[in-house]
Design a protein that fits this description.
The complex is a heterotrimer. Chain A is α+β, with helices and mostly antiparallel strands. Chain A contains eleven helices and twelve strands. Chain A is elongated. By secondary structure, chain C is of the alpha+beta class. In chain C, strands 3-4-9-6-8-7 form a six-stranded mixed barrel. The chains are: A alpha+beta, B alpha/beta, C alpha+beta. Chain C: It is a multi-pass membrane protein. Chain C: It is found in: Cell membrane.
Chain lengths: 401, 233, 437
């Protein structure tokens, strides 16, 4: 029943047009396949758990207008006030993770070492730090009020206690128990005891190679660069943000206050990846659409050209479905050729992207699923004109001119 | 005017079904009205295509206006076609998207005439075929006979010395056919050489001379010509 | 004849509106996609200091960790230590030189209705304006002394002056910045290079400073920079003075060297500078310094990153698919009109004029595609501005050059696409279309 031979010979007569469609499908497969592997990688990146209650946290930064402002006193007064606010679960003063701005250090497991440090993000905060970020303590203890020191960066103060992430603990003490052990800053002999381990924190730079390594020290630092990190009860975030803005200004009008949600800051951090995802998805979508349009255009053209021939076939007893089948089969042949071209082109393209731009390798399964989708699109694009062709009247055969 | 010597034409394409011309020789003088008849597939159209410089013969010599066209390139052949030859087809072959005015404009454009000159010629040609009032119409809005008159006007606008007609009345009823034929005779009287391919013996007889092509060769040349002229008289 | 061909093209496009619309859409989408990314790349690759590309140099000194080079392509820290910057400023070789860093704080006007707000500031030595060719509207820069001793003087950008003083000459007036009163000494024209070639440490395309403060204020105000501070050595920092004397790098440094002799002398000077410090036990790495002109500096800092370049390649591939699509559709369209071409041939058109006629038709499709492509590019750039959440505001916009390029690209692509179909139809034997079938 498969009328392959006549289709092939008809295609041979239209070989350039048929080849152009196949090449289009092939290039599209190469682009869509590579785009989807990048999209997938970026989406996985954005979807990683942060270890922090992103959706519930509001941050507030202030800058005093007056000179010789007592920042530490302001921290204490503000935190007391904030913790009383309705809807607030916990609050601390610290650097905000996941924002692209922060501090990094190198940690050693032995004193007085200059080389071989493990790179890690560092945070300071008071006894509500773990709670305010909603990190999960998996071992040891949280900071208590008595652990907290009030100091500044230029004071020469060194921490004696720290909480680390599970990932950092694993990197520092490969396989062994980290709790209770000491870590050291480079070239120093001041032991910093690990008193607690939290499950996860992606740190200030989630896309950095050392993301996930974080150390937390029990201190409030006297500097411009700190934010109030306020975790709202679920669903209360926006109300808390509004309240925070009002109350902080009311509490002390001599300063500029900036309130943001953590979600907004994280979105901004991932804006580049998000742009990539959106742009690549639109490219893939538009491209598929353009190819579909091209197929519709060409099929319609071929059918118009062969109108008389189709009429003759119908007059000679071809059923409607035989006519539609003819065009679908013709398209299938072209599409399969295109996909074969595309699978090869996708691999070449991917090799280039991987070597030039460090993009992930393209697994064959991704190429094949893209190929299946394109095949479906190609056949759907043929379907409408093919069904219309089936409606061509057998009377066309007897009409002249 | 036209002189063909031992023309041979053979096709090797399987899609076009045309018989070759074999050892085909013919001379047409200035001012003649020659009809060409012959059975289907005898080579009439091939003869016309070669005469009209649309195709080149496989071998043999073709002199048009004493110029050997076998040596000319596409550009010069196109120029000659444009300046010396007019075509009239059975299917009229008007360009459907263009108005009558613009259809007649086509050959004049390729001759590179100035706008004013073209306009003058187009108007004159339309007047000759009696369709001045319909210059802005599209071909589809006209009857078959009117369309053929436009095609003749288009052929005449370039003031060709040599008119090739391929079954000019084939798609027309007898009244229309007579009108078109009278127009052609009128044109011929004014000095244009006409070669007309037809399968209608009545029309063929109205020409000065009739040539029959059989199996790619001219049959019975001298005799047919004399008798045809005699009968018209 | 061109005019004739164009009018024929118009007629032909109107004759097959759907097929024509498909082709115009294909070209427009292809042009839109590639122009969006090409515009981004073009804007990102601009060099605001191109005029002084031969004479300005970003200075790098390798004072880094003996065990590990700084992690960047140059293997030297981007910035200098405070103490080295202060010492370099003493050299009299460069025509101009600048030590600077990013800062900021709340600004307010005594007795004004205006609410205090936060501004980006640049703490810099006085030559900043001369070195980067930034014209003053009012006043001028601060005196030399202010680069070493605290002087509460401030230069405002035009925009800040507009906001605080309604645009009037504010020289001599006082503003409150970060809690201290400053005297306005100058107002400059707004200077917003994009990318921010003079400081590529924090956001290449963000806005530049709105106020400028003298470099001599560090001790008085205990300024910690709003930029990157990198260190490698564990040092006891017990006071602000320790911070200034540390191996932390946080100062950007530029020098203007107008002649090759100056360049030569400055290189010798830097070599001696590092040797001297090696003798004091600093600069433990092999002797190395960097002098990069603005275009080298932009390249070194990878302002146009891998993602951007990948998108450009991708969009060119996209355009290629659109082109192949256009070739297929043009071929279909032209072959449908083969009988007409046959008639034209019979009426005296040469193969070449049939070819030109159809190429012009392709060009017209390209022109229409280019116009719509510009609209699509504008939409694409607007979407990118929105998606990038402010990171791209200064680069995701189109200038006249890019608009013309869009049309040029569209016409060029469609002419390319039209070449084969036009050739094909000009080569068709006319006689087969002239006979009534």
């Amino acid at each position: 029943m498969l009328e392959l031979r006549p289709i092939l010979s008809a295609l041979w007569r239209h070989k350039i047009s048929a080849l152009l469609i196949a090449v289009q499908l092939g290039l599209t497969l190469a682009i869509v396949g590579n785009a989807s592997v990048v999209i997938q990688e970026r989406m996985e990146r954005i979807a990683r758990p942060t270890g922090v209650a992103v959706t519930d946290i509001v941050t507030a930064k202030f800058m005093p207008v007056a000179k010789d402002y007592d920042r530490l006193r302001a921290f204490r007064r503000d935190l007391d006030m904030i913790r009383q606010l309705p809807g607030v679960a916990a609050a601390t003063v610290s650097r905000v993770p996941l924002t692209g701005g922060g501090s990094r250090t190198g940690l050693h497991t032995k004193p007085n070492r200059e080389v071989g440090a493990t790179s890690s993000a560092q945070f300071w905060g008071d006894e509500q730090l773990v709670d305010a970020l909603d990190m999960k303590l998996v071992a040891g203890r949280d900071f208590t009020a008595s652990d907290i020191t009030e100091t500044s960066f230029s004071s020469g103060w060194r921490p004696s206690k720290a909480i680390v992430t599970q990932q950092l603990a694993g990197e520092l003490f490969a396989g062994g128990e980290a709790l209770g052990k000491a870590v050291y800053l480079g070239d120093e002999d001041n032991p910093i005891e690990i008193v607690g381990i939290v499950e996860r924190n992606l740190g200030p730079w989630p896309n950095a190679p050392d993301a996930g390594n974080a150390v937390f020290y029990p201190a409030i630092m006297d500097t411009q660069w700190f934010d109030y990190v306020v975790r709202a009860e679920p669903g209360q975030r926006d109300a808390v943000a509004k309240l925070l803005e009002e109350k902080l200004a009311e509490h002390d009008p001599q300063r500029v206050v900036t309130v943001k949600t953590l979600q907004e800051q994280l979105d901004r951090y991932y804006a580049g990846d998000n742009t990539m995802i959106k742009v690549l998805s639109s490219v893939a979508g538009l491209l598929t659409f353009i190819v579909a349009l091209g197929i519709v255009g060409l099929t319609v053209f071929w059918i118009t050209q062969r109108q008389k021939q189709i009429g003759v076939r119908r007059a000679l007893g071809a059923t409607r479905s035989a006519i539609s089948r003819y065009f679908l089969l013709e398209n299938l042949l072209i599409a399969v050729t295109g996909i074969l071209i595309g699978v090869a082109a996708a691999q070449i393209f991917n090799y280039f992207l991987a070597s030039e731009f460090d993009q992930p390798a393209l697994p064959l399964s991704t190429t094949l699923s893209c190929a299946l989708i394109l095949l479906g699109v190609s056949l759907t694009a043929t379907l409408v004109p093919a069904l219309r062709a089936a409606n061509i009247s057998p009377a066309t055969a007897t009409r002249s001119v | 005017m036209l002189k063909m010597q031992s023309i041979r034409k053979s096709y090797r394409t399987d899609t076009i079904e045309t018989h070759a011309l074999r050892d085909f020789s013919l001379a047409v003088d200035e001012g003649e009205f020659v009809s060409v008849t012959g059975p289907s597939g005898s080579g009439k159209t091939t003869f016309l295509n070669i005469a009209g410089l649309l195709e080149t013969p496989t071998s043999g010599q073709y002199l048009l206006d004493d110029e050997d066209v076998g040596n000319l390139n596409d550009r010069d052949r196109s120029r000659m076609r444009n300046e010396k030859i007019g075509f009239i087809f059975q299917g009229f072959n008007l360009i459907p998207d263009l108005s009558l005015f613009d259809n007649i404009d086509v050959p004049l454009r390729y001759r590179g005439l100035k706008g004013r000159e073209r306009k003058k010629r187009i108007e004159k040609a339309l007047e000759q075929v009696g369709l001045s009032a319909r210059a802005k119409h599209l071909p589809a809005q006209l009857s078959g006979g009117q369309q053929q008159r436009v095609a003749i006007a288009r052929a005449l606008a370039g003031e060709p010395r040599f008119l090739l007609a391929d079954e000019p009345t084939g798609n027309l009823d007898s009244l229309m056919a007579r009108q078109v034929m009278e127009l052609l005779e009128f044109i011929n009287e004014w000095g244009t050489t006409i070669v007309m391919v037809t399968h209608d013996p009545d029309l063929a007889r109205r020409a000065h001379r009739n040539i029959q092509i059989v199996d790619g060769q001219v049959a019975d040349l001298q005799h047919g010509a004399a008798s045809a002229t005699a009968e018209i008289a | 004849m061109i005019g004739y061909y164009i009018s024929l093209a118009m007629r032909s496009l109107r004759g097959t509106p759907i097929l024509s619309a498909l082709m115009v859409a294909a070209i427009a989408v292809g042009v839109g996609a590639s122009m969006t990314t090409l515009t981004l790349n073009y804007m990102m690759s601009r060099n605001a200091l191109a005029d002084k590309d031969d004479v300005l140099f970003a200075v790098q000194l390798d004072n880094w960790d003996p065990h590990k080079a700084f992690h960047n392509p140059s293997e030297m820290p981007w910035q200098l230590t405070y103490k080295d910057a202060i010492d370099l400023l003493r050299s009299d070789i460069p025509s101009h030189q600048v030590a600077m860093h990013r800062w900021g704080g709340p600004i307010a006007l005594e007795g004004s209705e205006l609410r205090p707000y936060t501004v980006e500031a640049r703490v810099t030595s006085r030559d900043f304006f001369a070195l980067f060719d930034i014209p003053f509207i009012h006043g001028g820069t601060w005196p030399h002394a202010a680069d070493n001793n605290s002087a509460y003087q401030i230069v405002l950008s035009q925009r800040t002056n507009e906001k605080l003083f309604g645009g009037e000459n504010s020289v001599g007036r006082t503003v409150n910045f970060n809690g201290a009163p400053f005297t306005v000494v100058g107002v400059i024209e707004d200077w917003q290079p994009s990318p921010k070639v003079h400081d590529l440490n924090n956001g290449d395309f963000l806005e530049s400073a709105e106020v400028f403060l003298p470099f001599g204020l560090h001790r008085a105000l205990e300024i910690y920079p709003w930029g990157n501070t990198n260190g490698w050595k564990s040092e006891d920092i017990n006071s602000y003075e320790d911070q200034l004397g540390s191996e932390y790098v946080w100062i950007q440094y530029w020098a203007q060297l107008d002649t090759p002799e100056q360049m030569e002398r400055y290189r010798d000077y830097l070599t001696g500078f590092i040797r001297e410090r090696k003798a004091q036990g600093r600069f433990p790495r092999p002797l190395k310094f960097g002098l990069s002109n603005p275009s080298e500096w932009l390249a070194l800092n990878e302002v146009v990153d891998g993602d951007d370049r990948m998108l450009s390649w991708l969009s060119l591939a996209f355009l290629l698919v659109c082109l192949v699509n256009a070739v297929a559709l043009l071929l279909a369209k032209f072959l449908r009109k083969a009988p007409e071409a046959g008639v034209r041939r019979a009426l005296g058109a040469s193969g070449r004029s049939i070819f030109s006629q159809h190429l012009v038709e392709s060009g017209c499709i390209g022109f229409a595609g280019g116009l719509i492509g510009i609209l699509m590019t504008l939409v694409g750039l607007a979407l990118i501005r929105q998606l990038a959440m402010g990171h791209m505001d200064t680069v995701a916009s189109m200038n006249w050059l890019m608009m013309l390029s869009a049309i040029g690209l569209a016409i060029l692509s469609s002419l390319l696409a039209g070449l084969y179909p036009a050739w094909r139809i000009s080569r068709t034997n006319p006689s087969i279309y002239l006979k009534t079938q």
